[in-house]
Amino acid sequence: MKLRGDVTSGIVLPYTGFVRSLYYYREYLRQSVARDLRKKYKRTTLGYFWSMLNPILMMLVLTIVFSSLLPRREDYMLYLFSALLAWQYFAQTVNESLDSIKSNLKIIQQVPIPKYMFAISIALSNVINFLLSLVALVLVSIVIGRPLPLTTLLLPIMFIPLFLMTISFSLLFAAGNVFFEDVKHLTRVMLSAWYFLTPVLYGPDMMPEKKKFWLQLNPLFHPVNFMREIIYQGQVPDWGIYCMTVAFGFLLLGVSLHCFRKADDKFLYFI
């Protein structure tokens, strides 16, 4: 595999260097994603089946606990699962990206590769896990006798804002963790609180209007809710809100890339 120098240098447009890097290092990304997947399931008996079992087990526990506490809702299992998949993709990727720079020190010292590629690789490998989890979603829908609506076909489009938010926060936290070890512990505590501020266990319709306004400031509010709307409710999300969410995702990604590049040259002094 032939790698080139960091193609981001000298690029003025905010995303041009990033997109070009993804293209130039596409072979590295392919190999890195395959390596991440092998490492994750190395020496496990069930292997890739864990990608399906993990969300199912989590869904069963949460359904048993919260279905009796929250207002009654038909097919709460599917209601929960449709949003839980989105949250798990985000939280898992952010957690795994925290040490993405530190754990690749040897590669950084030997190959002039953009350091954000490590977090991108993790995000892409978890897309594979997300797709495998959809098999579990189909099985759940069959078991409870509630077929998935045709709007589920919009999932690739609705995944875009979730993917943008996930990459953005992964880059920010990964960079911060290089300089401050506390970021790792703070991020995990923050994700626990963030989980309850995101409409996973509940829906926006369960919240008073005043609280709903503040909850919508959560960057994951709409991406997670989009998943529930197309998978559980069988509704096409408001395209205006969708476009604004995607635009915010690109803006957040631009800010994350800017902050990451500002810190890039100092990483080797702190690893």
Question: How would you describe the overall organization of this protein?
Answer:
- The chain is mainly alpha-helical and 271 residues long.
- It has one domain.
- Helix content is 69%, strand content 0%.
- It has twelve helices and no strands.
- Helix 3 crosses helix 6 and helix 4 (76-97) runs antiparallel to helix 6 (117-143).
- It is globular and about 55 Å long.
- 35% of the residues are buried.
- The model is unreliable at 1-13 (pLDDT under 50).
What does the secondary structure layout of this molecule look like, with pairings?
Blueprint: H1 16-24, H2 26-40, H3 50-66, H4 76-97, H5 105-110, H6 117-143, H7 155-179, H8 182-196, H9 209-215, H10 221-233, H11 239-264, H12 267-270
Helix pairs in contact: 2-6, 3-4, 3-6, 4-6, 4-7, 4-10, 7-10, 7-11
The percent range for helix content is: 55-70%
Question: In percent, how much strand structure appears in the residues?
Answer: under 5%
Structural class: mainly alpha
Report the biggest beta sheet as strand number plus sense, adding barrel if it closes: none
Unreliable residue stretches: 1-13
Number of helices: 12
Termini distance?
26 Å
- Look at the structure and give the mean pLDDT: 82
Radius of gyration: 19 Å
Write down how many β-strands occur, each being a DSSP E stretch of 2 or more residues: 0
- Secondary-structure element series: HHHHHHHHHHHH
The shape is globular
The number of distinct structural domains comes to: 1
